[in-house]
User: Fold these one by one.
Assistant:
Number 1:
Amino acid sequence: MKMLVAFLFSLIFAYEISAEETFSFWKIYGGKAGPTGWRCHVVQPDPEDHGPDGINIHDWDGDGDPDLFVNFEEGGYSRLYFNPGEKKVRKAWLDFIEFNHSKCEDSGIGDLDADGDTDYVANGGWVYFNPGKSKVRDSSAWIKMTLFDYERRVPTVTDVDGDGLNDLVVGAQEWYKQPKIRKHQARSWKKFIIGNNRWPMNCIMYDLDYDGDKDMIVADRGREICWYVNPGKNKVTSMWERKTLHAHHEPMFMTIADVNSDQLEDVVITGGSKGNLAEKLIVLLRLNNSGEPIFQEIIIDQPTGIFPKGVAVFDLDGDPKKKEILVIPKSGELWTTTYQNGSDQSQNWQTMPLVIPGAETRKKMDNAWLGDLDSDGDLDVITTEENGGWGVIWFENPLIDSDKIHRNPSK
């Protein structure tokens, strides 16, 4: 019996050590450069698996440095992290305020009371009104308005009806009109229905048919990539027509950007882990400059990682004539892709992993957000990591302050 008890205690002790080691990987690998010069820094680790799951970038305190507003899904709170400045930015960010709510998978930002300050939206229905720069560090000064208490993903702040006031789109299917008075009172906000989605990963407001108003593009996981046709200013309170943009039924994140410098905005979609295009990157090259979009499809195989998840498009090599696509997998190495000798053939697109220490210990990363966190003139990549203890992280772009960026792509 004593031997059994001793054995059980040894198992518990070994488990505790294993858990501690798992959540200490960020201490081992954080800040260390890989062969391309890229490094992963930790804003704040997540040893208790509270699940940071969304990033919003803005200079809330007006000091010239971008801050980060982050929602924690399992933790049920959000934190506004203030950038400590370029000399301390690579260390943990210790200056933050916290807002407790409930489980929250998505968040968004924008001015929702027309006072010029950027407000915060958690989970779609919880709006926190910014009290202004002088009181921004006082969480009690932020006024909370509850529009609803259920989840609506990808809250997006945009002027839907063209009246000059920002409205709130939630779940990529409903929108709340900003009132002219009593803006901090939920009963003043009127709801309208656009359509219905299963699991929106993105809600991108963009004029896809070039008719002068913003349509809504949605990566609707479990169904398709779709777009809702804006019916015009006089009909925006009615249902919007839904159209298929691409038939892949298990997309992860997507973005819209001109990837081949032809002055037309293209669509880039990560294929996720299911379906015929799982573990692929889907690039839709726009071919027309008016009317409904016509695309040429380019399919790119992932060179590394579990499956492609987050995505961003920006200049990675200092050549402004051509941008690169950066992909964040669920777990593993970040990678980039660009083309040689023309963008219209899949075989012309080449990929390159960005080997960064500790990649295999970052278990569940999210979308790719861009911001110059270290104020060196190039865009860094910000994301969150769940289940591996890394928490809120950013990848330092070595383009300007390092000569260790190699352009040796492999197919």
Number 2:
Amino acid sequence: MMISNSKKAFFFASLALMLFAFVSCKSSKGVDQKDGVVVKDVTMNKAPVNDPTTIDAQTSATTPTTSDAQPSSDAQTSATVQTPNTPNDQTTSLPNDQTTSLPNDQPPHEGFVYVKTLIPDLIEDLRYATTNNFMGAKADGYEGTRVILSRPAAEALKSAADELREKGYVIKVFDAYRPQRAVNHFVRWSKSNDQRNKADYFPTLRKNQLFPKYIAYKSGHTKGSTIDMTICDKNTKEEVDMGGHFDYFGEPSHPSFIGKYSLGEVTQEHKKRRMMLREVMVRHGFKPYDSEWWHFTLKNEPYPNTWFDFPVK
């Protein structure tokens, strides 16, 4: 049967359109989605299935993690270590400016703040970002020197700072939020022969005596609501003499200690200042630590079972 030229033209045009539609459909299914960013629900302690950046404390009990040796009832509970999934200079699509890229005063991580944005006269002296600490080396994860805390802890600290300012003082911070990788660095250091700063930080102790009494295998700092601090004169910004320095491991660092020791003497006046600081912090929602006069943790910390690992920037 003969087919007219017009019908032939219509047939081939229809065939061409069908072929074009098929190719277009296949191409659309091949869109690269590798740039999508997964954001964990920190508040509910949830993470995507098979996410390698979340470590369950019950299934990784053989992996040591460290911090200040503060007794913790939650050490036996399920916990996670959170790390950002976002490469450098890439921001997530979280609402309310919740990003893991850190320009200026944007939050350093969901639920956390740079404390100086709430307390402008805060003095930042993060010792683990320097070599002026018990290791004598910069700790892993300290890429900057800005003090970070969970928002509730920062707001409570602001209230304490307001009271201390009325008394003539400003706050100096030695450590606050501490990444888990820094704690792991402490553990590695403890197994080495490096004792370069022994005379200044643990002159009466052997290195193996520091764990877990003074440096624990899980750190309250890593949960984001613990702070190591002192006070300075509001006008001169000079540190108030507390009779001993930050991270001295031994009885002279106990808030109630009075007496002479290898680096000096803690007098009744020093004890009075330590107790004044302790009372102010307790009044504003923090609990003290009986082995370190400088160490305070928010009583109602928002992430009691989560150890974070985003870097300090």
Number 3:
Amino acid sequence: MKKIVAEPYRDIDFSNAKRGPVIRSEPGKTKISIRIDNAVIEYFRAQVERAGAGNYQTLMNDALLGFIQQRSVIDAVRQVVREELSSPRAKPRQARVRAAVA
């Protein structure tokens, strides 16, 4: 086993150094640390392997964005249905069924 040797002391001037990341993050993205089930990570990594390229974190982000968009569409449809059902011009469903039978 190869021994790791510490680098010799160097006199480095940090007087003009700036704090923060060396590489700035993309606008609109935030770096976080979360715990994800192993099965979820394995699923997305397998998707990347099958595709032959990509990043599992990007796939996870896309899946979350898709869920948010789907939920917002479903919520919008529910709101429209509620408004239509509660409007005074809407006829009760049973009255329409009875009229069709008669």
Number 4:
Amino acid sequence: MFISNDIKYIGVNDHALDLFEGQYIVPNGMAYNSYAIIDEKIAIMDSVDKNFGEEWLANIENVLGDRQPDYLVVQHMEPDHSANIVSFVEKYPDAKIVASSKAFTMMKNFFGTDYADKQVVVSQGDTLLLGEHTLTFITAPMVHWPEVIMTYDNKDKVLFSADAFGKFGALDVEEDWACEARRYYFGIVGKYGVQVQTVLKKAQNLDIQTICPLHGPVLNDNLEYYINLYDTWSSYKVEEEGVMIAYTSVYGNTKKAVELLADKLRANGAKKVVVNDLAREDMAEVVEDAFRYDKLVLATTTYNADIFPFMREFINHLTERNFQNRTVAFIENGSWAPVAAKVMKEMLSKCKNIEYTDTVVKIVSALNKDSEAQLDKLAYELCGVSDNNGGESKMKYVCDVCGWEYDVEAGSPENGIAPGTAFEDLPEDFVCPLCGVGKEEFSKAD
């Protein structure tokens, strides 16, 4: 992996790990990144997980040859990045340790020593001269631990970003960055959006050409894409329009309602509909989806005068991570005394800027005509479609020239348009089958 002529990658891949931080599944493993900046003086950026100490020290020796490092920069004290500080000091006793004051306190707690004779304590704006490279330190408290610092190299324009811009997955596996970075962000950093915003502001005037995180690939192309995503995630903005339905179902009746709602949403022009069974899906994936889309439907049964455990766990994950700025709808089921909608709304009561739908779907044991009509009404509300005829109207578009109607629910199969295709998703070359005019000559039906 090439970073620059003077900056070398010395990290490791972990394919033995099944759960990162004891809870996040990592089917493609994990990378623990470390870097060497080689100049008149040499700085090693962070260490790696305890199980890879020998490999990491060998990597250092391979890139340095007969030279010795002058500094170990400790940006983050979480053990997957700090576990080999002791072995580093044993091998390189003359090296200094560069870290924040809180990091040295944590070293005392982890290792029984704060390395007082080796300390170089840095804070916001402090610099370290290596030769041609000058390192500038950026404090990043609670991104996502209190001792965190980031480091900017002025020569090669590299930001060493600690856990920020990291993702799940080893570096020898090709996979989409955004999906696993989003799951990583909202699982691990999501609570600290305000603090991430503060760091982004600190770094906004730096000329950053490469980002070197502690997990995941080095980023050096289209950095605006990654930075914009981090800005969206940390400010709790909507990333994509869509409806995510999270549900639990004991005997299948709530599941049946959810599947019916999903069909109705698609028929009424919803751009994206995602359905997640909380008992079976990876919880971190579902949390990721909740923060990705602008609308969330929570569907569950009343259970012990409360809600089903997986739904309670899911909502706790949302509230712990400052879920906000979304539209939320409820579907509740109960054979007697259903209270699920009330409980879920109370759990979300401290979330900011939540808009609740007027329609709450109430199922008593199984779907009937009344609850199916409520599903119709909820689908219309979530899609922004008016319901003028007791639940019978559907989204339609009328040709202004000849009066032919395009019905979203029915589509136009004879013209190759599948049922449920939203008007805006029709092909650009779509024309009225009667008079031949284009889409621009259609209006939404009243």
